[in-house]
Design brief:
eleven-stranded mixed sheet; about 425 residues; Peroxisomal Thiolase, Chain A, domain 1; alpha/beta; globular
Length: about 425
Amino acid sequence: MRSDTDHLGRPVVVITGMGVITSLGQGQAENWAALTGGRSGIRQITRFPTTNMRTTIAGTVDFIPVPDMSAPALSERLAELVIAEAIAESGLGSGGDFPGPLFLALPPVELEWPQRQALALASGANESVHYDDLRKAARAGGFEANYRRFLFGSVGESLADRFGTKGSPIATSTACASGGTAIQLGVEAIRRGEAEAALVVGTDASVNAESIIRFSLLSALSTRNDPPSGASRPFSKDREGFVMAEGAGALVLETLAHARARGATVLGVVEGCGEAADGFHRTRSSPDGKPIIACMKHALEDAGLAPDAIGYINAHGTGTPENDKMEWVGVTAVFGERAASIPISSNKSMIGHTLTAAGAVEAIFTVLALKHGLLPPTINYETPDPALPVDCVPNKARAAKVGHAISNSFGFGGQNVCLVIGGEA
């Protein structure tokens, strides 16, 4: 039986509740069945016109309706649903009285084009909307609802009010590492003794025309539109970009002692967190791989584990040529000759890249892999890349008993987070 404290005398932090939504469906059961069945959630975009766009596909969550559609509105709704699932599984607190703080990973929030257009047209502008029209509308007033909706803090405050978390909600946005950052913040707060439990959420519903265009201008997105299910190809030689996607993941964290005292079921253990940033480039990784290497090494040191203890890596694995190459550089530096024999799969081959939510969503899938002894596949792996001799669990799930795993999240701007997760308490 695991001790209540770790190798540094800190409280062991465990996961007692999880909730997840992705383009594959709502809830743990639906997502896990689709993920291990090798099914894709990538589809043609129908939310807005895609005429003349190079990329017309995404992992949208269109089966969750919201009024006045916008990224913050859908992000908040997805977060509400996954929090409810996580709290119900944990059995901790009531629906409106959670006994700990909220740490939220949230995408950047900005006024979107439909709202800009409606605001300007309300001021008497014609269909061609200019900045001066927006200024005129702002001076006229009557836009309080938009003002409240598009404040970055609005989502966190609303969730804190609804679920009764304690203290001011902490919302963070560290690019594609955000979900991992939120988990790390929750773990650190518990280790410092600031709380015995914490609610951690990553949510992102940023599939809109402007986001698609911006990522396209960076040449970051896959343009393999037909069929959509074949677009995301992590580690494959013919990979050519990532697929934007939406989703949310929530985890209830608490000390092992607290969970045992109330008879809770422990789903997994957050054994170590590593973080490293380099600022080398707005989108590219440092060519020497040092930040990625440091991130994984820090997580292992924090967990008090040697590299040989890791039996599975849930890769960041976006399917862009640069990212997959640099992740492999990092893995080989940390694990040496074992690198090619460690199963390393990418959930993004099926759900797409959920951006701000990815770290939380993929941590949940890592916990489920350890719990069920089943590693999700990397689908669309048809053309191996000789430069990346990765055991990516190609195309079909694999039964495997794993004690410790790593979940990687590497973001634009060199923001990197790595989590070491254990399956036994």
